[in-house]
Structure prediction request, 261 residues.
Amino acid sequence: MRGDQEQAFEESCRSAIERLSEAVDLVLIHNEREVRGDQPRRVLNPMIVLLAFSALERQLVDLHHLGRGRQWHGPGTARTPHGRSVFAAEGDDGWRAILAGLTRSRLPEELRVRVFSGWRGRSPQGPRLVTGALGADGSPGDLDEELRRWRTTRNGIAHHCLPQQMAHDDHLVPLSDAATERTTTIQAGAARACLATMVQLVDQITVHVAAAADFPADAVPRPPGWWFADDPPQRVRGVRDPGRLWGPHDLPRGLVHQLGR
Prediction:
């Protein structure tokens, strides 16, 4: 990425953070009261997944556009390569190739993300660290499978076909106990697990791309630090008692030393 693209890079990253912020706000709304069964707040969970996954996907499309030296018209204006998701595309248009090209091949292998294997209520459970490395035989790695899970879920939400998705990948679609014969929705802890994954990826991708492009540290928008904490501070976002975002867990941040901070 060229030095004259610094402002466009900043705009792209800031846009991704804004989308994630909307999803975090929905978590804070959900935290205001306990939710059980078929209540209005159940609609927050699928929206969290939609916003979170789309933030990462759009960031990658925008960065791919910039990496190819194309004219920049602002966040969200670049077209998806060949009309396919970067998580479904192959070759140079796939998410792995995009990141490798933007980071001098440091990503996706150096990504380190805390993902969750389960959830209880609104708390993600079973944390484990995964990397962006492929399997030993070149097969999809742990992070590939995690992204496939959330892309499948996002698509099921967006196209209103969660039952169809369950018929093919029932272990990938984390339905809530608020689901009824009339409607399906996503489990609260699962929605937060998705958001946690996307927050970490957007942050780490931003840091690595900026470092590879030699952009100065003060030009790099980063998600706020309290998103990564196990217990956000009082009155953040104007909320007196925001509650926990990820249960008792914190999240790893991008490698800030690469930016000279």
